[in-house]
Amino acid sequence: MQKLSHQQAGSLGELLALAKLNTLGLAAYISPEGAPGHDLIVIVNGQAKSIEVKTRQFRERPTEITRWPVDLGTKGEADFFLFVELDLRTITPTFYLLTNAQARETHRLSSGLGNCYPAHVRKLVPPNDFLPLLAVT
């Protein structure tokens, strides 16, 4: 089993995230490829909220994912960050939704690049919990 390219995994993660948001009854859309801004826009209680989606894939176990790269310099204004663990055996996603403040809490600089580390993210938020998004007023 071969891993998808980063671009393929990212596009698939965005599509899976969009489908998940739609199943929650939320209106959402994907920003056009290469457009400035964030990956998804979702309407919650009449307000547009931006979501930056970061997808990483694994073949055997989620611990194969060592980081989700996040550039807070260009993407730091997103309302939410959605980290996706993609199981390539079944194409099953596990979602970790973080508020902007939570993403900043898990963010670390490493060699000038920013990352959110999965172990910290998993401790901070439960998998597949979209209540922070649904609680937006």
TrEMBL record:
Protein's name in the database: PD(D/E)XK endonuclease domain-containing protein
Gene source species: Paracoccus solventivorans
InterPro entries xref list: tRNA_endonuc-like_dom_sf (IPR011856)
Molecular function in Gene Ontology: nucleic acid binding
